[in-house]
What we know:
By secondary structure, this protein is an alpha+beta fold. It is 47% helix and 11% strand. The protein has a single domain (3-298), classed as DD-peptidase/beta-lactamase superfamily (Beta-lactamase). The structure holds 6-diazenyl-5-OXO-L-norleucine.
Amino acid sequence: MDYQKILDSIQSELSVLPHTGKVASYIPELAQVESEKLGMHLYSINSEHYSFGDSNELFSIQSISKVFALTLAMSLVEDKDIFKRVDVEPSGDPFNSLVQLEYENGIPRNPFINAGALVICDILISILKDPRKDFLEFIHKITGNKTININTKVYESEKAYSHRNAALLNLMKSFGNITNNLETVLDFYIYQCAIAMSCKDLSTAFMIYANAGKTLNNQKIISFQKTKRINAIMQTCGFYDEAGEFSFRVGLPGKSGVGGGISAIHPGQYAVTVWSPPLNPKGNSELGMHALEELTTLTGFSIF
Ligand code: DON
């Protein structure tokens, strides 16, 4: 497969595509990012790298971090102890919605909506010695890149505008589904979302989901069984109320973030990341979705 040729044609197609997306502004610092940024990186199972554009530039991974947090939690805690506190069903609602939590007794639909990710943070805080440091070290391990860190401006900016996530935490606490101090959980969640990575870093990290839980230098991060489950949750819940649309158009398990990144995998084939900050009304990168739709169309294969 000539992946570079395919990426080159995606790049030229995107450059002429009319777009209407808007860069996220509810976290003010994210609105500072140039909307024209565009990068894509594909890491193939035989260790080849293919890319175009701003694929080495750091951006805010935001909700893509939820996949890493779930992976770390599942590598340390038995599934039954996680999934009694957070379900594995698509929500069909926006990522930051409160409504289902009220009538579902504080049990979030899945680990990728904000409520579910906050429960995963609570679980990690209970078991990690130094949650921030341990989480960052986990990212270093799966990427092989020890320079990865948070963007402190994004961290502080989200801290000042986190009322909705605080509301989710309070509601879940009232149902007994948060055990640690609310401020501590909120802080750790905002910290993980503020991590800055490039398309190349993210594709390298996501290779574990394409390679049965192992890095390409054969470090086992998580079992095949758990990798299969994480990929299933990405497929059904990775794009919130647009998970169906992403499956329909792209046909790969993936995860988006409001920083404009999307990472996806084709099991046994590749991990791919695209970054374009303007988002569609559901909070997913508009051009990113288009790029990945083209990728599965031009390669002629998806998981379906
Ligand atoms: O909690 C938030 O609102 C952000 N830190 C993350 C949201 C996000 O990335 C949703 N994804 N598309």
